[in-house]
Design brief:
Blueprint: E1 3-16, E2 21-23, E3 28-29, E4 33-50, E5 57-60, E6 63-64, H1 71-84, E7 89-97, H2 106-121, H3 128-136, E8 150-153, E9 164-168, E10 176-180, H4 191-201, H5 205-224, H6 228-247, H7 258-272, E11 278-280, E12 287-291, H8 296-303, E13 312-315, E14 322-327
Parallel strand pairs: 5-7
Antiparallel strand pairs: 1-4, 1-14, 2-3, 4-7, 4-8, 5-6, 8-9, 10-12, 10-13, 11-12
Helix pairs in contact: 1-2, 2-3, 5-6
This protein binds (3R)-3-hydroxy-3-methyl-5-(phosphonooxy)pentanoic acid.
The site of (3R)-3-hydroxy-3-methyl-5-(phosphonooxy)pentanoic acid has 15 residues, from helix 2 and helix 4.
Length: 328
């Protein structure tokens, strides 16, 4: 009898960012990070280890993808096979509920879902902490997507000590994000290569690690105090420092487009007019606005001077993974 395990995992946006590995093989980060899991964007993945299958088969939004394009997923399945002793090939079906090409961290929800579904389908019964460690091997940000609400990923110094845990879930106060989904030109550099370049060439990298560690302490306090302005200010400063690393790398790179700068300016103008809102950005052009739900109308109206209503997606704090299992 084989079983199919289906897992739903939500994406997360970092408020104190991970941007650089100290061990690329184990995916140990240079510094810890803190994120908010979001309800609106998620991945659903089902895994079956099929003794009759001759190769791993991965389909994405109902389309089978070529093995050479599925290498990262197949490597991850190999890691699960190594740990569980499972020898069969896997049938993986994944669907992404993230607006197409929005660049909204689908690797976070994707590898969190794959870690949980794959390990359980292979007969492993891992704790949430162990799932977080396993997801880390697929994508750093996936470490945090096992959990809901505000989550901290402890950098750690080896496989055992580098995992995430929830610091506030459920989130019982008014904080949300509005994603401003912008047209992506081709990504100038992958996050893996971008991180590697800043660690090895930015003269500011040591200062980043130092300030990110201080941000972690302040962010924990701001979240515990339910202080939106403090969370927003810290997140905004931290994000711009991350992007400053990219500008100071050799050769320099950045993920901004003209629309990114327009959205940033709109947030700054709103704030100058007394609206409590802040921005953060990851390895792509999209801007995420941190704000209270009571200001949604005002912020959307202001942003609609520049962007279509369909480009503005409101997301609330979201839950951790959920698992369903069918035997056949
Ligand atoms: O693990 P990756 O490759 O998805 O790295 C993502 C890094 C950022 O999104 C830019 C920051 C973060 O902490 O999520």
């Amino acid at each position: 009898m084989s079983k199919t395990v289906t897992v739903k995992a939500h994406t997360n946006i970092a408020l104190v960012k991970y941007w650089g590995k100290k061990d690329p093989k184990l995916m140990l980060p240079q510094n810890g990070s803190i994120s908010l899991t979001l309800d609106h964007f998620y991945t659903e993945t089902s895994v079956t280890f099929d003794p009759h299958a001759t190769a791993d088969q991965v389909s994405f939004n109902q389309k089978v993808i070529a093995p050479q394009k599925a290498q990262r997923i197949i490597k991850f399945l190999d890691l699960i096979r190594e740990r569980s002793g499972e020898t069969a090939r896997a049938i993986v079906k994944t669907s992404n509920h993230v607006p197409t090409s929005a660049g909204l961290a689908s690797s976070a929800s994707g590898f969190a879902a794959l870690a949980a579904a794959g390990s359980r389908a292979a007969g492993l019964e891992l704790s949430l902490t162990d799932l977080s460690r396993l997801a880390r091997r697929g994508s750093g940000s996936a470490t945090r997507s096992i959990f809901g609400g505000f989550v901290e990923w402890h950098a750690g110094s080896d496989d055992a000590s580098s995992y995430a845990e929830p610091i506030q879930d459920p989130v019982d106060w008014d904080i949300q994000m509005i994603a401003v989904v912008l047209q992506a030109s081709k990504k100038p550099i992958s996050s893996t290569a971008g991180m590697q370049r800043v660690v090895t060439t930015s003269p500011y990298y040591p200062a980043w690690v130092e300030t990110a560690n201080a941000d972690l302490v302040a962010m924990r306090q701001a979240i515990a105090a339910h202080d939106l302005a403090a969370v927003g200010e810290l997140a905004e400063t931290n994000a711009m420092r991350m992007h400053a690393l990219n500008l100071s790398a050799k050769p320099a790179f950045n993920y901004f487009t003209a629309d990114t700068l327009t959205a940033i300016k709109a947030v700054q103008d709103l704030r100058a007019n007394g609206i409590n809102c802040y921005y953060t950005l990851d390895a792509g052009p999209n801007v995420k606005i941190i704000c209270a739900s009571s200001d949604t109308g005002t912020i959307k109206t202001a942003l609609q001077r520049y962007f279509a209503a369909s480009q503005l997606i409101v997301a609330q704090p979201g839950p951790g993974i959920s698992i369903t299992e069918t035997l056949h």
